[in-house]
């Protein structure tokens, strides 16, 4: 490709007939500048770099020297640490010319360019042996030179990749050697040159970047005359001079080097003559053949034994494949045996090729980019498709070129499925071409059958191992493997940390979107977390949405940094089945051996720290301390008591009246749950409601609240207590649970409660989780005759834009806004909310009215209903009935009103979900 691009450049410049002589104006301008200009670039061998004695050298340097010689110019060369600094220096005028810059449309706004004189090819490079699919860069860490067009292109076109910028190619090679990055994206010639200079031999080309571009000389807009002069200099370079530059720098064919090669060839010829004389010693040839045959037989037998041992000890499949190739080559002298694997995706991969040089093997793998569309067909049919494919034909042509033609093709079948095939080639070093006969075909068939048995055994053991040690959903290590690895680490006296990770509100997402989506979500999260692991770290899944990360040889600061990274990693949404889901992790951290010297203690303590993180608001991490064990035990005991309380019906409903703000009449009441613990007394809802949500008890608890409230409403109606309706908080779990409408209808039928007596209060977080689905469900509820109120408005998401589209009857202004009234700032917010609701014809309820000033403010703004301690605290049933009966006296006697709101510590209002 470089040859073609340079040839095009040569042709273009050869067609330019403009004279290289300068005009008088140009000569005068050069005189003003002393005919001296500064040239700058980053070190990108072989185009521009510091050579011997720190002098600048390279292709671009030599081009500039030819221009300087033609036009009597002087150039001062500079090397910059990064390309971004080169661009900045040119724009500021510190530097006259950038030696190599891509003339993109975007850059033409700030720069002037000559015609392109250089073609750049960009490639991906990885450490040798690393398998990275460059067509799927999700989570792949890619290093690139800072400020280059390639860097901008990668960031724009591959947002799924993680892009690291460095100043030079040498810096990128260091990052790759340290495995800080997975790939280098850069100029192929520069990467290879720097690798040779640094004696780095373990990198290889991993694929094309699909971004090749041309380079020009560039200046800022104020130096247009300099561009015209440089262009004339380029036009004056002859075709022979261009070719000489190409041979020296781009193709490695410098004339001086060719002279050395010719001289070396003479010496080689003399050496070959000497070797020919030595060939008289060929008398021992027959003996050597006998020894070789015996060794090959022994090698084949040893390979069989090694393959059997490897399959029983779960050796690497790649090693077993290499053994298979060795065994076949031992059975068939003068051959090369290539083992190809057919992956479940249909991709055909060259797995084993022991008798082939690494360079030829790499080329063979590149030539055969074969993929089968449907591998479920019969093996014979698949082999026919392989033979008929263009990729296989291209591979065979290459084998002919290297004198190793394909002679046989034998399928490898495991349990009726084609898992690969073996191709038998004539050896490159062989003096005669291998022609298989009946004997050779029999040996190949027997060896392949043996390998099939080995692979069946290998697959059986692999499946058993995975079933025992891996999580079937995510492929991560399971609890058993985690225990084994941790036990070994602790027995060796290692220090480190264990992170217990739980996904916040995952159960709600799982229940609302379905278990299939939940499974996909867990796999996506596991994949994100895995990207952050180093080689010695481990991520396991205990079950559900619980993960454990083990970090050996890490201190507290490093562990905290990892916890921060995991939290940041989850800030971006996860898209599964067309749904965007936001999750956050709560992380508990236990250090070993300080927080536990055995696996059970470590996991238990990290779990306790995780629950402490949840108690502090979720989406955070918490280090373990000894007090958490006590809290965890108390939490566990309270959860057990909660289950018993639900069975014994130790709960009671309190009712807080809702007053008409104009007449003062009681219009309705809100049902609020209270737990009268047999030993601990009354427990506030903020203590047990989160436990009920996490354990799933919120569903039966919420159903009990609904049925009890409906029963009470029916009895009040029968007693002549004419409340318009009773409000019941409905949890997100209930709203997401299938069959809600049918259950509500059943409750209404059992309690003889009419739907128009009932109001459901839902939270903003439910509405915003899926506005379309929420609107559909709430519309069904309203169609039954039940009113719908939006509870605690303003404390959750910003849902104002959805109010007009959602089927709501009332909006409850949260007590946090009412508390500071008539404060000017809070008052402005409340006025805006009320005005909006009035425009949308939505009723308004003010929560937490405790002072006359608050009541007066809300009345002046046109609020419909109010509830709070100014009127009454939440009351048990019998006290509520007494309060209702004494309402006229209450309205007339402010002193009595004030006495009703006196309380030392008012109970926290927490909805049952």
TrEMBL record:
UniProt key word Transmembrane: yes
Catalytic activity: 3',3'-c-di-GMP + H2O = 5'-phosphoguanylyl(3'->5')guanosine + H(+)
GO molecular function, one term: cyclic-guanylate-specific phosphodiesterase activity
Limits of the GGDEF domain: 494-626
Cofactor(s) listed in the protein's UniProt record: Mg(2+)
Superkingdom to which the source organism belongs: Bacteria
Enzyme class: hydrolase
EC number, UniProt record: 3.1.4.52
Domain named EAL: residues: 635-888
GO biological process entries: cellular response to nitric oxide
Claim: Membrane is one of the keywords in the record: yes
Keywords on record: c-di-GMP, Membrane, Signal, Transmembrane, Transmembrane helix
Residue spans crossing the bilayer: 264-284
UniProt-listed InterPro entries: Cyclic-di-GMP_PDE-like, EAL_dom, EAL_sf, GGDEF_dom, Nucleotide_cyclase, Rev_trsase/Diguanyl_cyclase, Solute-binding_3/MltF_N
Signal peptide: 1-18
NCBIfam families: GGDEF
Protein name, UniProt field: cyclic-guanylate-specific phosphodiesterase
Species: Pelagibaculum spongiae
Lineage: Bacteria, Pseudomonadati, Pseudomonadota, Gammaproteobacteria, Oceanospirillales
